[in-house]
Amino acid sequence: MIKHRSFRILLISEAVLCLALSILGNLLPDLFPAMSAFPFSQLGTLLRMLSLSGSAGNLAAILLYIAVCLLPAAALLLLRRSAPLHAEDSLPVLCSAALFPILWLMVNPGYLTVPGTEGVWCAVIWSLLGTWLTLRVLRSIFASDRAQLALWFSRLLRAAAFYYVFDLFGFMLPAMLDELSMMRLTPDPLSPFTYSDTEIFFTVLRHLVAALPSAVSLPVIFRAISLMDLAQEENEGVLAAAESLSALCRTALILSVVSVAVLNVLQLFLFDRLLNVHISVVLPMMELIFVLGILLLTRYMAENRRLQEDNDLFI
Known about the structure:
It is built from nine helices and no strands. By secondary structure, the protein is mainly alpha-helical. The chain folds into two domains: 33-143, no CATH class; 145-315, no CATH class. Helix 3 packs antiparallel against helix 4, helix 6 (146-183) packs antiparallel against helix 7 and helix 7 runs antiparallel to helix 8. The chain starts with a helix and ends with a helix.
């Protein structure tokens, strides 16, 4: 299991990588066409350079191309040594089959039927890998005992943290920067469609409010992971940590919902000064379910801890 310090370093590294890809996508759109195209588009560029470098380079490019395409299917050979294969394990084979034409298109982007769609094609690969991983995890969860379920819960909490970091720095922040850059491109300062400072401010505020649920989910996940670790160690601080996590879950959900309502009201007050008004009606069902699950977990741990303390006093 990843230690807390290493886990935070990995999350920071993910955020830096997402920011770097976003910046490079603006500076070098031909080399970094889309977030979902990484690293296949860059690998295609490398293979094209190798192929054009000469006979030896062309041979190396062909061998590397075949090796990369066969990599998902070859991974099953390693998996078979430690666990039996199941129906969902056909997906890596399908992924290898899809990699051959898709990676070839990344090497030769001029053959794309619609230019600039590298990200769409590469997203198919990520979708197949994500589906396979989800089905494998689901099978493992249903075959786990109580101790293994607790371990899987900690793993999924960490996976959720990686997802939220990507959502914040790989999707929401680039979307905000792209919208702001488009607003700055208005050439005529006397145009009625020139964006004012108020418009720019509310654009930033709207994106920040949209990012708030993902942002507040990260401290909840950190606290939940710490709580799981305390529970496994049978630490005396489990009860206090459980109560603290419950309060944090409630605060996080309140902040997410109230921020949307406040933004809506502010836009109504400045309706005449805004070119774009985005009124959102938020029913955070998934967030409520997530908070309820964390709350049930903390209450369960708290009750177990109280029962254990009562038994110790009785003995």
